[in-house]
Amino acid sequence: MPTPPEPAALATELRTAMGKLTRRVRHEDRIPHGQVSVLGTLDRDGAMTTSDLAADQRVRPQSMARAVGLLMDQGLVVRRAHPTDGRKALVELSPAGQAALDAERGRRAGWLAQAIEIELTGEEREVLARSAALMERLAAR
After folding, report:
1. What is the value of pTM for the model shown?
2. Alpha helical stretches, state H, the chain
3. Rounded CA gap, 131 and 137, in Å?
4. Residue-wise pLDDT tens for the chain (141 aa)?
5. How far apart are CA 77 and CA 71, in angstroms?
């Protein structure tokens, strides 16, 4: 029975492979990564203030204000009054923003599904499915 790989070596290989895969999938993007990330956060978490978005994305509030401004100019997000604090505004996805995000996700998933179909055998797909569950478990730790 083969000896399992050392955790540190496996971690390095996994991080490298995931980085390459992430960069390759992003190559399919039509919307810049930072903007897709903001749209995805709004889709998952709902309307947020610009400062909450900045904290979530780990950027300065001024940088997020610029990003939100660009997204508004493109019609991908809208601002509305905060329901409990009149000094604040909430940013949320517009219908056009939801459509753009869905298209972006579809391109990414489409490329990856095609690569899995072309490159992997049935047995390898089974291993990949089990590995995806393990990666989810690691990510939740």
Report:
1. 0.73
2. 7-26, 33-45, 50-57, 61-73, 95-119, 122-139
3. 10
4. 788 889 999 999 999 999 999 888 888 888 888 899 999 999 999 999 999 999 999 999 999 999 999 999 999 999 999 999 889 999 999 999 999 999 999 988 899 999 999 999 999 999 999 999 999 999 888
5. 6
